[in-house]
């Protein structure tokens, strides 16, 4: 019984760490959130914190995974029922309010292109799932007559993913790019409005 209780406590502590880390990185930014600060915030030593994750890279990957889960639940939902263009506009508007998480995402995703990086598999799976969900939602919109039938859903899904990531990078450099406005304009172009 002790082992089962310890496992549950470990999972609860891991959840607390990820929730706290998400808040700290969103508020303070990636570069200004240290492992020490995070450990203190959850009542652990640095070694105790890292016990729950294999490395700092793994910790940051799990923070991003948690962010994705929260964003999916709040903005994207079910690809069979979500108004995809509106969902992406709301998502990028939200991202403009959490620059620390956007910086973390950009930094880790760039580093993770190397196959040996601990986040490589996570990002590969993330992109495949995002493209598949986006393509499925586009197919549904086409069936409903709300998206041109001539648009290739799979190619459009790749373009949407590239647009979202590219806009975030541009926004981090100049801060004046209204990501939501650009995403809304993109969908207007695609729909021929």
From TrEMBL:
Instruction: Enumerate the GO terms in the molecular function aspect.
Output: DNA binding
Q: Which Pfam families did the record assign?
A: TetR_C_6, TetR_N
Q: Which residues bind DNA?
A: 34-53
Repressor among the record's keywords?
yes
Pinpoint the HTH tetR-type domain residues: 11-71
Alphabetized, the UniProt keywords read:
DNA-binding, Repressor, Transcription, Transcription regulation
* The name this protein goes by in its record: Transcriptional regulator, TetR family
